[in-house]
Amino acid sequence: MTKAETNERLVRKWVSSYARFGYGAKGIIYGGTGLLALSEAFDLTDEGVASSTGVLKAIGIQPLGKVLVVLIAFGLMGYVLWRLIQAGWDPEHSGGKGFPDIVRRIGYGCSGLVYASIAYSVVEILTEQPSEAKKSLEDWAYEIMARPIGRLLVGVVGLVFFCIGCYYFYRAIKAEFRKRFKRHHMSDAAKTWASIMGRVGIAARGVVYVLIGAYAVGAAWQFEPAMIKTTEEALALFDDNPTDEWILAILGIGFVAYAIHMGFQAVYRSIEPID
């Protein structure tokens, strides 16, 4: 084996390990969000922080919390790297060059950007920058909707989120994520629980995406930017009404299930960076 081949193998192994670390970090974010949602559902907290940023802030105030937050952010960048590799090189050979495949790879890229922004939010936590200095989602929505075709753009984005949510329901039913696992390394119990946690977790994400999309479409239709919802605000819909808190609890359980699903991905997923 030449030196170049040896170096290539080392790089591939490093990227694979970093991507697995990334799946684990993503799992911590979702697990924390789920636990916070459960705490809100059972009135154990009234902070309203069931979100990725809320999780990072909750961890950051603990002993050695800022160190843990930095490690999570570092891990998330591993997930970002893997998403960008999936978008640019399709290392898993999951499709051709048709329209659905192009959309899928664009989705990988967008996913990477989303988690890069979550990782960047660590800067705010470390510097204790006040969140009031930033524009809210409602402010951005108002600025966009006030422009020509702005309402149409917001409506289209909402429709995209709604469709993504429906696609998550489809994924939960089909459970094709199991094909990505190294099943020969898994016990029968691991296979069963990986399937259950994946289905439940992905379905929970689907519910939140459908809600975000539906409210965005409604905001565009009624020219009401205040209707735009973040993940935190979508979950809070069920916290505001005591009779609906059981739904928030179910979604919290779903997010915890998704965190466990990410754990299975980190351990058993087949990750081959680039051929």
Describe the structure in brief.
The protein is mainly alpha-helical and about 280 residues long. About 75% of the residues lie in helices and about 0% in strands. The protein has one domain.
Features:
275 residues, mainly alpha, 9 helices
SSE map:
Layout: H1 3-41, H2 52-60, H3 65-89, H4 99-127, H5 137-145, H6 150-174, H7 188-222, H8 231-239, H9 245-268
Helix pairs in contact: 1-2, 1-3, 1-9, 2-3, 2-4, 3-4, 5-6, 6-7, 7-9, 8-9
Description:
- The protein is mainly α.
- It has one domain (3-268).
- It is 74% helix and 0% strand.
- It is built from nine helices and no strands.
- It has helices spanning 3-41, 52-60, 65-89, 99-127, 137-145, 150-174, 188-222, 231-239, 245-268.
- Helix 1 (3-41) packs across helix 3 (65-89), helix 6 (150-174) runs antiparallel to helix 7 (188-222) and helix 8 (231-239) runs antiparallel to helix 9 (245-268).
- The longest helix is centred in the first third of the chain and has 39 residues, at 3-41.
- It is globular.
C-alpha Rg (nearest Å): 20 Å
Helix share bin: over 70%
**Quantity of strands, as a count:** 0
In terms of per-residue confidence, which ranges show pLDDT below 50 for 5 or more consecutive residues? Answer: none
The assigned structural class equals mainly alpha
